[in-house]
Amino acid sequence: MGKPLYLGLLAVLLVAAAVGAALLFFGGFDRDAGAVHTAAPMGTAKPTPAADSPADIAAKRDLLALMMAYQGQIAGVEKGDDGIVCVVMLSGKRIVYDDGREKTFEQKLADADLQDMMEQEYPLGDVDGVREGNLDPGRIRSYALFEEVYGGTEKAVRANLKSVALGRGHCLFNANNGAAAQLKKAFKEISALIDNEPGVSGFVYPLGGTFNYRVIAGTDRLSPHAFGIAIDLKSDPRDYWRWATREQGQGRLTEYPPDLVRALEDNGFIWGGKWAHFDILHFEYRPELLLKARHFVAPGETVSPWYAGYPETADVMEAVAVIDGAWEGR
Ligand SMILES: [Zn+2]
Known about the structure:
single chain; 2 domains; three-stranded antiparallel β-sheet
C-alpha cells in the first residue's frame, strides 16, 4: 500500500470514528427518523423529544433573538397545523415569521416577513470595504413589527417620542423598547471616546438628524427615521450610495473611526456603513440583528440544544420554553 493511500484510508477511518462518536453523543440517527413517535426504548419513562432539524434550529434561533430584542412586546409564539409560525404581539396581532414565499431582494425590501428581516448576518467587527451585491443586513425591515413596537401612524409614533440629551443638544427618539435609553447610553460612550480621541467629534457633530416622518429616498416605504429609531451623524457627500460612487464610499469607510461604530453597535445600533447600498452616516436601533450576530450559527448548521450559546438566564429560558411549546403544540 502506497503511503498517500494508507494515510487517506486512515483519515477516512478517523472521520468515520468521529461521526460515530458524535452520533452517539447526540443520540443517534433514529431521532431524525421519527423513532420518537413509536414506543419508548425499554427502561425509559418517556420518549426523547424530536431533534430539531437545521431549519427548525434557524427558525427557533431567529425567534429567540426577536423575543430577547423585543422583550415585553412579543407575548407568544404560535405554530399552526399548516406549519406557519407567528409571533403574537402584546396587542394580540399576529406577525408571520415565514410566509414561505420565494422573493427577490426587491420584494423582500417591499414586503418582508420576520424571516426575511433576520436572514442576512450582520457582520460584527471592522469591515475593510464596501460590501458587494445585496449584502445589506438591516435594510430588510418588517413594517408590521415596527408599527406594533414603535407606532402605527405618525401620531402614534410622535406620542412615543422622547427628547434625549446627547453630547451637544437634544434629539427626538422613540422611547419604546429601550431605543431612546440605548441611544443615550451610546452617546455617553461616544462622549468619553471624544475626550480621548478629539478627532472623532468631526464624524459625529453636527448631527444629521433623528426623527423625520418621511419615506426612504426613491421609494414609497417609510424610513426607519419615521419610527424615531435611526440617527444620522455628521453628513459627508460620500455617505450615501445614491449620491456617491463605490470608490467615494470606500474612501469614507477607510477614514471612519471603528471605535465610534463599536460604541453604537454595543448598544444595539447597526451601521449603514456595513451595507453594499451604503448609508455611512446612518445608525439604526436593531437589537435583534446584533443578538443574532453575537450568537451566530451558520444556515444548515446543527447545534444542541438549539439555543446553544445563549446564557441560560431566566428570561432566555422562559423564551425558549415559549418557542419549544409552539413547536410541540402546547
Ligand atoms: Zn439615516
